[in-house]
Specification:
globular; 97 residues; 30% strand; alpha+beta; four-stranded antiparallel sheet
């Protein structure tokens, strides 16, 4: 099991959840409309910033990890507006059983 931290522009929430659903990822939390700073900095005065980042944190079984990352990467590469999507994979050292 790994922990995935995904950040993206809020308007893609449904598509990201569809990717997780397709891989039967059922343990996740979504934090909608968070303010943040991405690699391009804050963009005041436009439709995107501030307050447009969504965070999804999910538990991903190791056998599904590559497929989920592959789908997220493909989604990001489809359009330039999705280039800010980030996904970090963090090992889970312990969990409550």
């Amino acid at each position: 099991m790994k922990f995935m931290h995904i950040t993206f522009h809020f308007e893609y929430s449904d598509q990201i959840e569809q990717i997780l659903d397709r891989h039967e990822i059922v343990n996740y939390v979504r934090y909608p409309m968070r303010e943040g700073k991405d690699r391009d900095g804050k963009h005041y005065g436009n439709q995107v910033y501030p307050g447009s980042t969504t965070v999804v944190q999910a538990q991903i079984p190791e056998d599904r990890l590559d497929a989920v990352l592959g789908d997220l990467k493909a989604f990001r590469e489809e359009k330039r507006s999705r280039m800010h999507l980030e996904a970090l994979v963090i090992p889970i050292e312990r969990r409550l059983e």
